[in-house]
Write a structure and sequence with these properties.
This protein is of the alpha/beta class. The chain folds into 5 domains: 4-149 and 157-164 and 179-190, NAD(P)-binding Rossmann-like Domain (Rossmann fold, 3-Layer(aba) Sandwich), CATH 3.40.50.720; 298-443 and 453-460, Rossmann fold (3-Layer(aba) Sandwich), CATH 3.40.50; 510-586, Dna Ligase, domain 1, CATH 3.30.1490.20; 593-709, D-amino Acid Aminotransferase, Chain A, domain 1, CATH 3.30.470.20; 726-921, Aminopeptidase. It has an 8-stranded mixed β-sheet with strand order 31-32-33-34-35-36-38-37, sandwiched between helices. It has a 7-stranded mixed β-sheet with strand order 9-8-11-10-12-13-14, with helices on both faces. Strands 20, 25, 26, 27, 28, 29 and 30 form a 7-stranded antiparallel β-sheet that branches. A hairpin with a 3-residue loop joins strand 25 and strand 26 (606-613). The longest helix has 22 residues, at 439-460. It is globular. The two termini are 45 Å apart. 47% of the residues are buried. Residues 498-534 form the ATP-grasp domain. Keywords: ATP-binding, Ligase, Nucleotide-binding. InterPro entries: Acyl-CoA_Synth/Transferase, Acyl_CoA_acyltransferase, ATP-grasp, ATP_grasp_subdomain_1, CoA-bd, GNAT_dom, Ligase_CoA_dom, NAD(P)-bd_dom_sf. Pfam families: Acetyltransf_1 (PF00583), ATP-grasp_5 (PF13549), CoA_binding_2 (PF13380), Ligase_CoA_2 (PF19045), Succ_CoA_lig (PF13607).
Amino acid sequence: MVTSNLDKIFNPKSIAIVGASDEEGSVGYILMKNLIEPGYKGTVYPVNIRKSEILGIRAYPSVDQLPEVVDLAIIATPAETVPDIVEECGKAKITGIIIISAGFKEVGPAGKALEDRILEIKKKYNLDIIGPNCLGIIHPDINLNATFIYKMPRTGSIAFISQSGALGSAILDIATHENIGFSHFVSVGSMIDVDFGDLIDYFGTDPKTTSTLMYIEGLTNARKFISAVRHFARTKPVIVVKSGRFAESAKAAASHTGALTGEDMVYDAAFKRAGVVRVEGIGDLFNCAEALGRQPLPLGPNLAIITNAGGPGVMAADAIIAKGGKLAKLSPETIETLNSVLPPYWSRGNPIDLLGDATPDRYRITVEACFKDDNIDGVVIIYTPQGVADPAEIARSTVGICKTMGFCKTYLTSFMGYEDVEEANRIFTENGIPTYYTPEQAVDTFMYMYQYKRNLELLYETPGELPADTVPSKRPLTVIIKDAAREDREILTESETKHILDHYNIPVAKTLIAKTGDEAAAFASQIGYPVVLKILSPQIIHKTDAGGVVLDIKSEPEVRAAFDNIINRAKEYNPEAQIQGITVQPMIRRRGYEVILGARTDPLFGPVILFGRGGVEVELYRDVAVGLPPLNRTLARRIMEETKIYQILKGYRDLPQANIKLLEEIMVRFSQILVDFPQLKEFEINPLLIDEKEAFALDARGVIDKESVFARIEPHAHLVISPYPEKYRTLWRLPDGRVVLLRPIKPEDEPLWLEMFYSLSEESIRYRFFGAIKVPIAHEFSSRYTNIDYDREIAIAAELEEEGRRKMLGVVRLFVQPDGKSGEIVFGVADPWQRLGIGLKLVDYIIEIGRDKKLDIIYAVMLPDNYRAIGLLKEMGFTIDFTPEGTVRATLNLKEEEEGGPGEVQKGIAPAAEKEAEAVQE
C-alpha cells in the first residue's frame, strides 16, 4: 500500500502545468511538448496568467479555475511565486506537486525562507511534493515525460532516482543509446518533502519495478531511508552510487574515534547495515542491476576465470584479488577432467587458459566442469577474437550449458571487442546472460553481487543469545553527565567514563584519583605494585602526547617522582589546562591484544561505533571499521571481520586466540550505552586489552553534548535503526493460571518460531499464509518473520515456559503502512494452543500498540472461510467487508473511537519486571 498522493504523481490521470509556455526553448514549452507528444493519455491543462491558449490547448490563469481537480501540478515559475501557487494547489485539492523551479536554499537564506513557507503549506493541506530544483519524473509505461528533457527511455523494470539533474539527463541519454529500460525515472532535486525513503517505499510496492538505482549526494532523513531499504532489500535490490567518497566530516575531534571516522565511512556502514549494494561508478549501476535481475547470488567469493588469452585472464585475476575476492582452487576432479580434454600445455590452474585456438566444445566442457566444482562460487567466461573459432558458436555452446547447469552459480561473460563479437553478445543478451566489454567489469559485478549477499546476511542472520543481564539503572549515570554539564565541562574524566563502563559490566582497570603525591603513594600501596600513573585533565585528551603517562612503577619513591614529573610535564604541555589530579591504576601485565572501541555522533546517522587496532598507533595504522547501533553479537562480529586485527585476534604467533565471544558481548554492551545516552557525543576505550580469557578497559574518555543534556529527547530518536521495543513486554495469565509472556519478537527467536510453525496444521498454514508452504522452511523465509524493522513492524509473540523449555504459542503482527496512519494486522495461534483465548488477547494487545503508534485505522485481510478469525475481529468491533478479490477485510477506526487514544497503551505496557512481580504476588 502506498500513499495516494504519490500514486497521483506517478500515475496521474490529469496534469496542470503552471508556467506552461509557447516560447520555444523555455522550460514551460518543453514540458508541454513532452507531455502532449509522446502519447500520454491523460488530460493536460496549461496554466498561464497571460495567455488563453498554449500549443493549441486552452490555458487557464490559475489552478483554481481548472474544470476539474487534477491529480498532479507541475510548477515551473520563478521561485518567489511558487509558495503562493502551492497554496492555490492546496485550496484546489491538488495533492501531488512537482516543483521544477530553482532559486531556493541553493541561493541562500532568502531561498531557504521560500522553502520553509512551502513546507508549512504542505503540512496544512497534506501535499506530496517532489523538488524543488529538479528535472521532474518519467513513467515510460504510460508515456509520461514530465521533465524538460527530450528523452523517453523504453519501458523496463528499473527505477532510477537521481539527486543531480545534470547527471540524470546524462543517464537518460546513456539509457536511450544502450536500450536500457526504466519503470520510472525521478529527479528529486532538493527533497524538501518526498525523499529517497518515500520513493523506495513506493517503488518497493510497484509490481513492475524489480530494482532501484540511485545517485546520492546526501541523505535528508537517514532513519526513513534505512528503514525503507531494509524492508525491500531482499526482494528488490537498491543499488547506489554515492558521490563525495573522500569528504571528511570530523575536522576537530576530542578522541581518536572522531578523527578516524570520516563521512564516507559512515555512509558505507549504513549502506551495509541496510542491505544496499554500493557501487563505484554509473556504469556499475546498470551492470549490477542486470546481473542481480538474472543471476543467482554467489555463495562465496571464490571465482573461476575461463579465458582463451593469458593477458585478460591475468587482468581478471588481479581484479578479483584487488576487490577482496578469491581465485577459486580447482578441485582434483576438475583438474582431472580438464587434463583429459585440454591441450597438454593448458594453464593447469585458475585462471583456466584454454589457449588461443579454443573451440566451442573446449569452452563447453570447461564451463560444465566449473559448474560441478563445489570450490567454485562463480564463473567469468572471457573470449578474445583470435584463431578460427566462431565466437557466436562459442556463445551458443556456453548458453546451452549455462541454462542446463548454471542455476546455482553466478556466471558472467566478457567477449571482448565490438564487431567480431557483436553476434555473440546479442546471443548472451537474448538468453539473459550478462556480458561485459572488459573482464574487470565482469569481476566488479561478481564482487558487488557477493557484497550484496553479505549485506543481506546482516539483515537476516540469526545471532546468538547474550547472557541474561539485568538492564542497569540509568539514573546514576545521568547524574554524572548532568554534573559535568553544570560544571560547563564537555569532557568527562577518565574515572567518570570508566564508571559508566563498569555500570554496563564492561571490565575496567581499578582507578583511583590522587590529588597529592602522598595520596598517590597510599593508593599505589592499596592497589599493589606495579602501578600506572596518568594525568587527569579535561584539556589534555591524548595523555601520552603530553608525557602524562608513566608505566610499571614498582615502589613508593618512584610513585612520588612520577607524580611530580607528570604534573610538571602537563603544565608545560598546556599551561591553561585544569589539573584535576593523577589517576592510579594497576599495571596490567597480561599478554594480549590491544583494540580500540569508540563511538561518535554523526550529524546525520547519529551514534556510530568504531572497532579496530588500538594503542597509541591507532591513527597511524588506521585499521578500523564502523557500524551502527544497536548491535547484537552477529553484527559486532561482522564489524570486527572488516579489520586486519581480527585475523590476529584469532591467534598470532605464540599468542593464543582472544576471547572473541567476550569481545562481542563487550561491543553489544558498549552499543547499549549509546542507545541509552544520546547525550554522549564521543565515547572511547583505547586500549581495550583482551586475551584468551579476560578483557580490561585500560583507558577511556567520554565527551558530552552539553546542549542535549537538559533537553527533552524522545526515546531512541537519536538512532537511525529502531532498537528492541522493551516497553511492549507484559505478562498475562491463561485460564488455568499459567503465566504467558507477551513480548516483541527478535532475531534470536528464529528456532522458537520454526518450532511453532511446524506445529501448525495445513488449515492453520493456509489461513495464515493464504496457501501451502513448502517444507522444510529455508532460513531466508523464517528469518523474515523474526528479524524485523521495529519502525514499521511490531510482532508480539506469546511465550510460555514449561519444564525449563520456552515455547512460542502464537504471534500477532502489525505492519505500519508508509502513510504512517494505517496498519495491517495478521495473527495466528499454534494448533495445540488454540481455544484458550490467546488469539483474542494478542489482537486486543496489538490494538493498544496501534493506539500507541497513533494510527487512525488498523485492518486485517482474511480468507472467507476463516470463520473463527472473522468472528474474533467482529467481536473486537471491526467492520467486516467482503472484497471483490474474494477475501474478507476487517477494519477498525481507532480515530473515531470515543474511548482510549494514543498513549493510553502506556498504562497497559508496564516494564516486564513490574509485571512479573505482580504475577508472583498473585
